[in-house]
Write a structure and sequence with these properties.
- With 207 residues, the chain is mainly alpha-helical.
- The chain has a three-stranded antiparallel β-sheet with strand order 2-1-3, sandwiched between helices.
- Strand 1 and strand 2 form a beta hairpin.
- The two termini are 26 Å apart.
């Protein structure tokens, strides 16, 4: 079954002023769509892989034929990563969005990092220090939250980890507004973090 681009769960302008409208249009409609188009081109020649969800495909990437493994790592990974990204953001100021964490994830953050401030520091550091393109993630790993960085469109699923939330630090995610000031983008991004959605992912991760 071919992958499809889901519409954003909010307007393109909903994350202003922290993420600008033009970036959201370009990022969602062009970049994410390109990953889907490229992944689907591979899956057309491998129908046995097309039967899997994108996340299940990435979990089992080690068993994908070598001839298409890199293409799917990049493009199926890009589809999965962005599908998570859009859903864990929302309009700043709405209930459960921005500010500090709420619900079960708040307690787990305190348990595993000591405080939300310590998590933010580690997460922003992972994003700022990612050389070139990639992502900063909070993942669920054997009963504990961890901060990791991944290169390009590599997926935490491929590492056996469940991505709770992540931030895209490819230049296309921020350059129109923040230019070369990636740390400024990383700090501003917390204003649109959707803790309600993140708690749902956390509940799924724990099973």
């Amino acid at each position: 079954m071919a992958y499809e681009l889901s519409p954003l769960p909010y307007d393109y302008s909903a994350l202003e002023p922290f993420i600008d409208t033009d970036t959201m249009k370009l990022h969602h409609d062009k970049h994410h769509q390109t990953y889907i188009t490229n992944a689907n081109a591979v899956l057309e020649t491998h129908p046995e892989l097309a039967a899997k969800s994108v996340d299940d495909l990435l979990k089992d990437l080690a068993n994908v034929p070598e001839s298409v493994k890199t293409a799917l790592q990049n493009n199926a990974g890009g589809h999965s990563n962005h599908s998570i990204f859009w859903t864990i953001m929302g309009p700043a100021g709405k209930e459960g969005i921005g500010g500090g964490p709420t619900g079960a994830i708040a307690g787990q953050i305190t348990k595993d990092f000591g405080s939300f401030d310590e998590l933010k520091k580690a997460f922003n550091d992972a994003g700022a220090k990612r050389f070139g393109s990639g992502w900063a993630w909070v993942v669920w790993d054997n009963g504990k939250l961890k901060v990791i960085g991944t290169a390009n469109q590599d997926s935490p699923f491929t590492l056996g980890l469940y991505p709770i939330f992540g931030n895209d630090v490819w230049e296309h995610a921020y350059y129109l507004k923040y230019q070369n000031l990636r740390p400024k983008y990383l700090e501003a991004w917390w204003n649109v973090v959707n803790w309600t959605a993140i708690n749902k992912r956390f509940a799924t991760a724990k099973g």
